[in-house]
Amino acid sequence: MTRLLLRSRVFALEALSSGLHGIRIDPCCTALRDYLVLQMGSLPDEQLRVLFLDAGGHLIADEQLQHGTLTRLALYPRTIFRRALELNAGGIILVHNHPSRDPTPSDHDIAVTRLLDRIGRELDIKLVDHIIVTECGTRHIRTSGAATKLERGTLQQLRSPGPAERGKIALENAKATLRRRLLRDQLFGAPELFGDPAWEMLIDIFIHECEGEPLPLSSLCVTPSIPMSSALRLCRKLCAAGIVDRIPDPGDGRRSFVRLTPETAHRMRAYFEEGRG
Less crowded by CB within 10 Å, the N or C end of the chain? Predict the structure, then answer.
């Protein structure tokens, strides 16, 4: 009986998978949802799949790129986009499962979505959606609005500020700097040679503060191209040096936010108002 059930599952997966080829993929369509739930919904541990799409939104490839836990995903954006470039993909759909059966996206899920969207836009590869799968259904981070707002547009050049818009120009210059650093990492790799993790973290905090958005520590630690544990140690060093502050979340004792000290914020604003990168 077990063997029969397994064979039936394989046939069902093949049928659902074949139905996705040759059509324009809608991340919210029933066919895709049924396929993902059957494929990943009951798995005992987390897996990451990426659906690679052509410019017209048709499926090029469906590949499992990671097995284990999404908390390490921040280390592998280069793997995802390198494969997308190899396939000449115009878009990707990121998919991972929650064995806990709770489809609610974590702070880290949302931070990863923001990071991959940011990198993809600079490589002209659209992050169409990020889908969380459980045995009961799916949750869409981008289409559900769970992700924080993501800025749009092409890579901006740094420019000198005008007297009436210094704050706005500082923010735009900081965003452009961070995008250029992310694009550099994707083009050249070897973050240990080109990386500047502390500076990237400070820029990310500065951008969030300019936009009035609190930045959880877990989200900050996916910004630099270093392991999460190394990013946490680096954040502690920045706190010890009086460059940033770590603030407990009064509504969730397990979470904390990071912010620039007033002196650091003033200096970074002056730095980016001058159009520096």
Answer: N
